[in-house]
Amino acid sequence: MIEVERLEKNYGFARALKGISFSVQKGEVIGFLGPNGAGKSTTMKILTGYLLPSGGRASVAGFDVVAQSLEVRRRIGYLPESTPLYAEMRVDDYLMFVAEIRGVPRDKRRSAIARAVELCALERVTGKNILELSKGYRQRVGLAQAIVHEPPVLILDEPTSGLDPNQIVEVRKLIERLGAEHTVVLSTHYLQEVEKSCSRVIIVNRGDIVADGTRDELVSRQPLGGLRARVRGPETQMLSQLGELLPGCPVTVLERSPDAVVYRIDVGAGSAPIEESLTRLVVKNGWDMLELQRERPSLEDVFRALTIGSEKEVAHA
Amino acid sequence: MREGLVIFRRELRSYFLSPIAYVFGGLFLGILLFVASASSLQNGAQANMQAFFGLLPFLLLLFVPALTMRSWAEERKQGTIELLMTFPVTGAQLVLGKFAAAVAYLAFVLVLTLGLPLTLAAYGRLDWTPILGSYLASVLFASSFVAVGMFWSSLTRDQIIAMLVSLVTLLALYMLGYPQLIELMAQWLPAVCIDLLNGISPYKYFESIGRGVIDTRDIVYFACFCGFFLYANTLVLQARRQKG
């Protein structure tokens, strides 16, 4: 549905996109993740025809975003960052305007608007001026205008930014429902959003794609973290025994309480399960294993590992 | 074409949804009618209309930049331009839709002033030919100002700057059609330059049509003038896509 090849964009001397490539299949919900200024919005602006790329090519539904821009724009619903709307218009008038300009046939406009209003739960505010709406409602009006013409592709730039937790949940549910009928590309800062509603994640950093895959794929590529053990027993002996059992694995003491010590054993990438031998060691010495836990790498770990330090360097640039 | 009409309708409606249409229209009509009726009825109906059309170009000069300063600058400031430019609409359709809406609004305000000649006609004999000619000239004149104002509005996100630069541009163009200034400049510049400068001033053509004689050359002039600035406007939009 979307093909992007070596896409580049320069703003003056700044290189916002350094030749990214990815593709999106029909029906996928893609989460675009990345720190601020990574190139998420730029990519979306090129896909929607708002900006022209400096190099490379991109196509949506088989149409080139530069040469066949109007065809591409007909097939896209777009929610730009910060949801710009004509504040002086009424919600229903605004949706009618979008339906008209998006080419919804005259006899289908009413039903198309009714569908968008229903999906976005806007029934109570259709007669109000956009100016009077809360941030949450404005966001939903923004989503309604993006879906009113039932586009095959939806591009949503930070659809939940600035919303309160309840509104975020609502918008997220809505996106999940939309994902059933549309191909969706959304960008976000919220990692939970990606975990909940996206079938695939693309992480961008400083104009490059640094990861592309399903959540589980990305997490499994991340080296396993460590093992946390809460043991009641003498600390020095425990440490020396651990050194014998697992040579080369750094051990740190995380916490000391009167009755137990929490150790973190950095088991490194791809190591065999060691929970059994560790438990046997503790039991053999007559100590008590109070807790044993494998640290699960989360998407957040993946994100941090791939993008850390970028802000510092951006600040220097 | 259809898309351009949708833009036109939204823009025109937007004028009437915001207070600007009423404040602008009220002030414009108030000043114009006050001055026109102040020159007493004894001067004769024809003289009164001359006072009216003498003031009109100057008022348009002041008011049109205030009307058009919003057209693109506001869209950019609010970010709505991003949606506008991602609708399946060409740049030319956007520009023409906005242009036509502003012209339609100004024409509407001018139609409201028809009350003046109608009243005057009740008191004395009125020659309608130059009056209708002047109305046509006023609409064309206002259109050329709208094209200039929109062009400057597309270059900035600051409405005030858009208004001031438009005002200066229009003032310069206006002055070039002013006979006294032309005579003054004739002492300094060769005749070719004078003809050229005088030739680009909309004011000259305004007067020409206002005499009630509609010359195709005058119409062509206004079409070219508007066309030039509107085309430049589409180029600015295109350049923005490139630059980001």
Can you characterise this structure?
The complex is a heterodimer of chains A (about 325) and B (about 240). Chain A has 12 helices and 14 strands. With about 325 residues, chain A is of the alpha/beta class. Chain A folds into 2 domains: about 220 residues, 3-Layer(aba) Sandwich (Rossmann fold); about 70 residues, Alpha-Beta Plaits (2-Layer Sandwich), CATH 3.30.70. Chain A has a 6-stranded mixed sheet, with helices on both faces. In chain A, strands 2-1-4-5 form a 4-stranded antiparallel sheet. The C terminus of chain A is likely disordered. By secondary structure, chain B is mostly helical. Chain B has one domain. In chain B, helix 8 packs antiparallel against helix 12. The longest helix of chain B has 28 residues.
The number of distinct β-strands of chain B equals 0
CATH class of the largest domain in chain A, named: Alpha Beta
Instruction: Give the number of helices of chain B.
Output: 13
Q: How many discrete domains of chain A?
A: 2
Q: Percent of residues of chain A in helical segments?
A: 25-40%
Globally, the shape of chain A reads elongated
What is CATH's topology name of the largest domain in chain A?
Rossmann fold
Count of helical regions of chain A: 12
Rg of chain A (CA only): 25 Å
C-alpha termini separation of chain B: 27 Å
**CATH architecture designation of the largest domain in chain A:** 3-Layer(aba) Sandwich
